[in-house]
Each structure stands twice: as structure tokens, then as C-alpha cells.
DNA sequence: GCGACAG
DNA sequence: ATCTTGTCGC
């Protein structure tokens, strides 16, 4: 199905169907590889540059980059980010020679009005363990976490159900929002992402993915899969 | 009607 | 998201 032709009401219907498929149970298993996914584009352009960076875990050393270019006309509408970015990310995913145990997506998972943020949407379509890591809140209520690195507080919906974690990844920086995408729970998502934070506010997977797609857009990295 | 609003 | 210089604080 072509997302570019969908109306917002139709996209909402699809999210309501897909949310039935989301699973948030504890992730059991060893993590040997993690990956980060992100998109870059020039303002006012319909060309998007998608990328997935594969990293060894827990060393967090990059193993390779999958980069693809795609045309997208679906607009950015808060709550519907997946319809703009998932198609290109699936192309990059298909091109990845080796899949990670867990994929960290730049955006939210179930911390979404219909529990279907981009990380959950991608996870269901690719049948892959995913976690959403966002820089700003989209949905939910929370108390500001303490100022020290590692301080965190629950992100809940209006019924008090926990849908994610607001996490202070570094001292004196704005917190990040971590939520399960698919096949993992809130606690497991926080545990994995916190182990992916090194020197910067953002976890290495999405930070490196962001750098890669930017370099790709600017012509510094070639399209395709490139071993690190 | 008003405020909120991932990338 | 992207553009973009200087500036404040650890």
C-alpha cells in the first residue's frame, strides 16, 4: 500500500488496526547487535534520506551503514510521522545484510495517542524488536526527572498507565523520551537505551544514524551498504 | 474555542 | 527536520 495516497482519517484507521499487533512483553535474549534508524531531508523537498547504522553491543562500535534515498509526499503531521518515514526505513532495513537484535528508532513507540508511534509501526511491519527514543514529548504526562545523569520518571497516559520513561541521559541536559516500540517492555527499553548512552545526550545508535543520514544527504557517504 | 503538537 | 553565530557553563 502507498502511504503517500492516504488521507489522515485513513491513516488513523490503519494505526487503529496495527495497534492490535503491538506486543510489549519483556525481551528475553542476549543483545549482540543494536542499530539506530533516522531520516534526513532538505526543507521543502520531497526527497528523504533514510539510514540504519548497525553497532556491536555493548561495545557500541559501528559495524556498517545502510543508506537509501526515497521520494515522499505524505506531509509531516504530529502523530503520523510513520507515514512519512517508515517506507524509506523499510528499504534501508531490507538492504541491511545483518539484522540487529534491537533497533532504536528516532521518535516514539507506544508513547503516542493511539499507541502507534513510528517505532511501533516499523516494529510490527518488520516483525522486529524496536524501541522509540525521542528528543521531545508527543503524548503523555510526567514529572520532570532529577538533574543528575540516570534520573528518570514514568511517562503515563491519563489513566495512569505507564507508556514510557523520561530519562536524563546526561547531567544538565533536557531529558529524552524512551518507549517500547514492539516486542519489548518499558523497563527493558530503558535498560537497553541507557546502556547505549556514552558521551552525548542521545544514545549512540540514533546519534550515529543521524550523523550518517546527514552525511549521506550532503554527499559525504555513498548510497547502499557500507562496512564501517 | 484554546493549547499541544515526534521528525 | 534544516539553517546558523555567538555565547554560556561544565
TrEMBL record:
<keyword id="KW-0234">DNA repair</keyword>
<keyword id="KW-0963">Cytoplasm</keyword>
<keyword id="KW-0540">Nuclease</keyword>
<protein>
    <recommendedName>
        <fullName>Endonuclease V</fullName>
        <ecNumber>3.1.21.7</ecNumber>
    </recommendedName>
</protein>
<keyword id="KW-0460">Magnesium</keyword>
<keyword id="KW-0479">Metal-binding</keyword>
<dbReference type="GO" id="GO:0003727">
    <property type="term" value="F:single-stranded RNA binding"/>
</dbReference>
<comment type="similarity">
    <text>Belongs to the endonuclease V family.</text>
</comment>
<dbReference type="GO" id="GO:0043737">
    <property type="term" value="F:deoxyribonuclease V activity"/>
</dbReference>
<feature type="binding site">
    <location>
        <position position="38"/>
    </location>
    <ligand>
        <name>Mg(2+)</name>
    </ligand>
</feature>
<keyword id="KW-0227">DNA damage</keyword>
<keyword id="KW-0378">Hydrolase</keyword>
<comment type="function">
    <text>DNA repair enzyme involved in the repair of deaminated bases. Selectively cleaves double-stranded DNA at the second phosphodiester bond 3' to a deoxyinosine leaving behind the intact lesion on the nicked DNA.</text>
</comment>
<feature type="site" description="Interaction with target DNA">
    <location>
        <position position="76"/>
    </location>
</feature>
<dbReference type="InterPro" id="IPR007581">
    <property type="entry name" value="Endonuclease-V"/>
</dbReference>
<dbReference type="GO" id="GO:0016891">
    <property type="term" value="F:RNA endonuclease activity producing 5'-phosphomonoesters, hydrolytic mechanism"/>
</dbReference>
<feature type="binding site">
    <location>
        <position position="106"/>
    </location>
    <ligand>
        <name>Mg(2+)</name>
    </ligand>
</feature>
<dbReference type="Pfam" id="PF04493">
    <property type="entry name" value="Endonuclease_5"/>
</dbReference>
<dbReference type="GO" id="GO:0005737">
    <property type="term" value="C:cytoplasm"/>
</dbReference>
<dbReference type="GO" id="GO:0000287">
    <property type="term" value="F:magnesium ion binding"/>
</dbReference>
<dbReference type="GO" id="GO:0006281">
    <property type="term" value="P:DNA repair"/>
</dbReference>
<keyword id="KW-0255">Endonuclease</keyword>
Amino acid at each position: 500500500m502507498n502511504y503517500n495516497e492516504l488521507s489522515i482519517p485513513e491513516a488513523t484507521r490503519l494505526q487503529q488496526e496495527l495497534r492490535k499487533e503491538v506486543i510489549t512483553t519483556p525481551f528475553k535474549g542476549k543483545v549482540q547487535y543494536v542499530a539506530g534508524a533516522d531520516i534526513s531531508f532538505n526543507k521543502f523537498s520531497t526527497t528523504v534520506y533514510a539510514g540504519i547504522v548497525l553497532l556491536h553491543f555493548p561495545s557500541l562500535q559501528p559495524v556498517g551503514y545502510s543508506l537509501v534515498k526515497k521520494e515522499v509526499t505524505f506531509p509531516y503531521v504530529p502523530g503520523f510521522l510513520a507515514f512519512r518515514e517508515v517506507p524509506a526505513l523499510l528499504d534501508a532495513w531490507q538492504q541491511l545484510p545483518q539484522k540487529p537484535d534491537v533497533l532504536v528508532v528516532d521518535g516514539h513507540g507506544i508513547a503516542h495517542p493511539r499507541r502507534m508511534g513510528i517505532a511501533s509501526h516499523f516494529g510490527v511491519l518488520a516483525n522486529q524488536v524496536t524501541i522509540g527514543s525521542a528528543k521531545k514529548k508527543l503524548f503523555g504526562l510526567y514529572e520532570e526527572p532529577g538533574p543528575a545523569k540516570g534520573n528518570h520518571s514514568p511517562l503515563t497516559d491519563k489513566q495512569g498507565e505507564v507508556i514510557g520513561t523520561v530519562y536524563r541521559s546526561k547531567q544538565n541536559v533536557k531529558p529524552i523520551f524512551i518507549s517500547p516500540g514492539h516486542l519489548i517492555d518499558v523497563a527493558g527499553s530503558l535498560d537497553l537505551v541507557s546502556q547505549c548512552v556514552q558521551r552525548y545526550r542521545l544514545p549512540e545508535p540514533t546519534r550515529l544514524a543521524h550523523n550518517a543520514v546527514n552525511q549521506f544527504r550532503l554527499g559525504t557517504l555513498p548510497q547502499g551498504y557500507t562496512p564501517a
